[in-house]
Amino acid sequence: MPLLDLLRPVSDEELRLLSESNPGWQFERLADGRLAVSPTGGESGRISAAVLGQLYRWNEARGLGVVFDASTGFKLPDGSVLAPDAAFLLGERWQALSQEAREGFPPLAPDAVFEVRSRSQGLEELRQKAPWYLANGVRLVVLLDPYLHRVEVFRPGGVEGHQGPERVPLDPELPGFVLETRGLFLP
């Protein structure tokens, strides 16, 4: 993932406009002001959509909160704006935000985030995002690596690695949600 060192940090509004005027590219602002830029490739986009669909169906059945896609940037407590491939936020936390806060980059950490490795990034690079999320209050970070057929689940208490799993339960943070990996990782 390329990092851009700019002369000055971009504002939230500039980041929003940059994202809107460059469809197909994902812009994230790190806490130190650098911009991370990455396009979504077809395979990672397909997997992200499948994960988002599973998360959406699970939430529709339970009504616990709100599900977000990769176009949503969250303004984390450290000032960074990150846009996970899929995210979940408990309903009461979303409802506590003003309408203005909901329209911009929601100023809070989601409860759970999903990140899918793309061809343009290495697994270590993807793993570096997990501590950023956790340090900002995310309770569950799920990394999917379609190239190694691996799922890694990060929580404040540690990490679980799953090599070639068919199912990965994500309790208690997402009650009853089981990530189905059949069809996600192609041979």
UniProtKB/TrEMBL annotation:
Keywords: Endonuclease, Hydrolase, Nuclease. Residues 13-180 form the Putative restriction endonuclease domain. Signal peptide: none annotated. Pfam families: Uma2. InterPro entries: Nuclease_put_TT1808, Restrct_endonuc-II-like, Uma2. One of its GO terms (molecular function) is endonuclease activity. SUPFAM superfamilies: Restriction endonuclease-like. This is Endonuclease, Uma2 family (Restriction endonuclease fold).
